[in-house]
Design goal:
Blueprint lengths: L4 E5 L4 H10 L3 E6 L1 H8 L6 E4 L9 H9 L2 E3 L3 H6 L2 H4 L12 H6 L1 H11 L6 E2 L9 E5 L9 E3 L2 H7 L8 E5 L4 E10 L4 E14 L16 E8 L7 H18 L6 E9 L5 E7 L14 H7 L5 H14 L9
The structure holds adenosine monophosphate.
Adenosine monophosphate binds next to β6, β10 and β13.
Cofactor: Mg(2+); Mn(2+)
Family: Belongs to the phosphohexose mutase family.
Catalytic activity: 5-amino-1-(5-phospho-beta-D-ribosyl)imidazole-4-carboxamide + formate + ATP = 5-formamido-1-(5-phospho-D-ribosyl)imidazole-4-carboxamide + ADP + phosphate
């Protein structure tokens, strides 16, 4: 492959991805639509813009041809799965950074939990039926955006009152773990065979984070729509366990969907007052929480001695893979 162009969709963490690519000397291409074009122009980070009506249109032959003519490597982020879909992306014939197969494992909650269990990591307890509920439980609806429609219940009686009929195909009864949340961002380098901690954030969620400002007798079911992200550092003594979780997930991913996780991913966890960590979700690509660590985080400073964002770390891996003729190890 001649010098690749780093391409992504105009959304989510696109600015960081384009900036990182430019810092590493790549040409950049932004797939945008009329509505978003003006906003992205303000930052002047895209050398080229491919305008589509709908992000799904990148599946069309014409768009794929254009992307391939420009030697594009697509960098997937949350909007790829949201607007195009994990399964649809498998049909795309444009090189993509990372392992496309993993997007299906993150999109399907049952598959992710299978992965966590096999990796031997602690997860919140799952109740199989409402009559098993014996503690604070979050009723999660599969595919609910921002947790809209989730309910908090403490017993079968409360489940019947607040939710009604139980449908195991549509909902999960998950123990609510009380503690503090952390969303560590990792980068697994197949070239170095190493897991790197790039940063950690805390999601700012509406209305869950707005409710404590209300009077104590005010009740409203919490929603978890992400409206922003806050940078956070974890107690240093807790970090070895976080690395252990990450190593287990990567090792198991190699067995479950070879070659496994490649590049950026984020673990979503709650840490209790007993300092036990429970993982409740994984994002198997760059998360928007990495945006808080531009141009770099304390962790990347410790490792590299210079500012390295997740966007730049991705570009560094592609640059090295190309130089060592190992691009096939980092794209799919
Ligand atoms: P999810 O839909 O799984 O991404 O969850 C949305 C939000 O609900 C998370 O970002 C957390 O704030 C919270 N949450 C999810 N699962 C749990 C859990 N088992 N215990 C406590 N909080 C949770």
């Amino acid at each position: 492959m001649n010098k690749p162009t780093i391409a992504t969709l105009a959304s989510h963490s696109a600015l960081q991805i384009l900036k990182g690519a430019k810092e590493e000397g790549f040409k950049t291409l932004l797939i945008s639509n009329i509505k978003r074009d003006k906003f992205y122009e303000r930052f002047n980070l895209a050398d080229d813009v491919l305008v589509v009506d709908d992000f799904k249109d990148i599946l069309d032959d014409k768009a794929q041809k254009t992307l391939n003519e420009k030697n594009s490597i697509l960098i997937p982020h949350g909007s790829f799965v949201e607007y195009i879909g994990g399964r649809e992306l498998l049909k795309l014939n444009v090189p993509m950074f990372g392992n496309k197969k993993v997007l299906e494992w993150e999109a399907d909650r049952r598959k992710s939990y299978q992965w966590f269990r096999k990796a031997g990591i602690k997860i919140p307890h799952d109740f199989l039926k409402p009559d098993e509920i014996d503690r604070l439980t979050l009723v999660k609806l599969f595919g609910a955006k921002g947790g809209r429609g989730y309910a908090l219940v403490q017993s079968e009686k409360e489940f019947n009152e607040k939710v009604g009929t139980f449908d195991p195909e549509k909902m999960q009864l998950q123990e609510y773990v009380l503690g503090t949340r952390f969303y560590p961002h990792f980068f697994y380098s197949p070239l170095e065979k190493e897991n790197e901690l790039i940063g950690i954030d805390l999601r700012y969620e509406s209305n869950a984070d707005g409710l404590p400002r209300m009077p104590a007798d005010f009740y409203m079911p919490p929603t978890y729509v992400i409206t922003g992200n806050i940078p956070i550092m974890m107690r240093e003594s807790l970090l070895p366990e976080v690395f252990d979780l990450a190593d287990r997930l990567v090792e198991k991913s190699k067995e479950l969907f070879s070659p496994g996780l490649i590049g950026p991913y984020s673990i979503e966890l709650v840490c209790t007052d007993k300092l036990e960590m429970y993982v409740f979700e994984i994002s198997a690509r760059i998360v928007a929480g990495t945006n808080v660590w531009m141009p770099g985080s304390p962790y990347t400073y410790l490792k590299y001695g210079k500012p390295i964002s997740m966007g730049r770390r991705i570009a560094m891996e592609i640059k090295r893979a190309q130089k060592e003729k190992r691009l096939d190890e980092v794209i799919s």
